[in-house]
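Example 4.3 (complexes with small molecules)
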Amino acid sequence: MFYITTAIDYTNGAPHIGHAYEKVLADVLARWHRMCGEEVYLLTGVDQHGQKVQQKAEAAGVSPEQYANDVMQKFIALWERLGIAYDGWAATSDPRHVRCVQQILTNLKDRGCLYKKAYKGFYSVRQEQFLTDKERGEDGSFGPEWGEVIELEEENWYFNLSAHVAWLREYVSTHPEVVTPEFRRQNLLNAIERAEGVDLCISRPKERLAWGIPLPFDPEFVTYVWFDALVNYISFAGYLSEGDASLPDFNRLWPAACEVIGKDILVPAHGVYWLCMLHAMGFADAEMPRLLVHGWLNIRGEKMSKSLGNIVDPNDLCDVFGAEALRYYLVRDTKTGYDSDYDAERLKMIYNTELANDLGNLCNRSLNMCKSYLGSVVSRGEGDDALSAALRAHLSETEKKFATCMDAYNTADALGALNEHVKQCNAYIEQTQPFRMAKEEGKLPELQRVLFHLLESCAHVAYLLGCVLPEASARMLEQLQVSTEGLTPAGLHWGLLTEGQAVQAPTPVFPRIMSEEEKAKAAERAAKAAAKAARKAAQQG
Ligand code: MSP
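Answer. The structure with 5'-O-[(L-methionyl)-sulphamoyl]adenosine bound is encoded below.
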């Protein structure tokens, strides 16, 4: 089973383009593995507890539950719009999750992994954590990222994280597959060196924070939001669910093949806390999840933030460009693991160039020629030629490259390879000139062969694009009258189109994205052409 899951999003705000990027990346990978014939389970959801939600709910005059659920609806609506085909939804106020977290806490306490102690120190209200000297800047103060910092003394429960650090160092050093990309694993290894000797405070006194999961053995406390949230990867996968039929079978899902998270939550949350929590619960090395760490989407090199007023709402982009254009852009113009800049002009340019021009034109031209010259009936024709053989070889190489890149989470190069093949097909049209063949005597078999190569290539590309552009892919395959049921990328073969089958007349799948100015100019051109046609008709009449 390919169990893929994403970070769960805080419900103290609204979804932005960074959240959308992560979910689209995960959905594309999940769809790819489904296409490959693997059984896939994609989990995503929302992180609902914590101080920030409590504060925002108070300010809004509603209960934290109400507030978190209202925000959750925004995420659900956006994922629906973006075609995120998830199998499980993880909302941390779900009683099944609460039960699981409490059971884990009880088990850890029974195993001697938890203890209570008083602590006095500096506390960041924004980050909901005590700060140590390591968090001080060069001038000795705590930086603005910590928000308001207060001095606090309180009793709390601790997880003996430090007892697991030696294991963690050994495990991460000897298992390169645990974090992708490799340089992020190095970041983690450096952080583990600094984690020595520090335990993790996993409770918050109820009087300060009521919106959390109560500790089952000390009701005056709720669970620290990170400890609660990280457990979602196993609670919603059926861990300790005792046959609850509404949850999956844990043994079939676990370990997660891929937890998709942003670079900001590798250290310490996923790379240190989460792996040590699992180790403390008794998970063996072979039962550790794998982490895929993506970079951030920034705006002109800057972090998106409310204070800078540069937050991009994916809903606005869906309104203007359409969900599929946004999906394509997000996984085409980012190098998985690295930061990239979100740029609406690039979105438009990449869509217009690669989809509207290169692929859209290829499909339209090929189907149009087939309609005009062959009555929309496909035939392989006869014989072969060097250009056609080269095109077939190129397609086969493209498919291998696509698969290798997708398996390595490299969506940008996978899509780049498909685009290269589309360009190759457009060049093949110029080289073979089917429009000339159509006018020449005795060229029918050759013409059929060329158009077959073009339409067959379109079908392969449309099929593979299915994991990124499910709707456009289905529409292209419909026009080509190709069924891909039961097909896998490894089983792709020359001859998706069959001898003598019909294809449909083309209807453009990728209309150009135009600015208001371009639209006005196009309308002006269309009006002029209509007027000219009317004049001509009047003269003739
Ligand atoms: N609730 C925690 C995660 C708990 S997982 C057990 C959290 N939530 S978040 O809403 O702040 O972020 C959710 C995900 O979105 C994280 O993986 C984070 O890295 C990602 N992104 C948030 N801003 C981002 C960008 N600007 N760009 C790309 N992804 C970013 O952290």
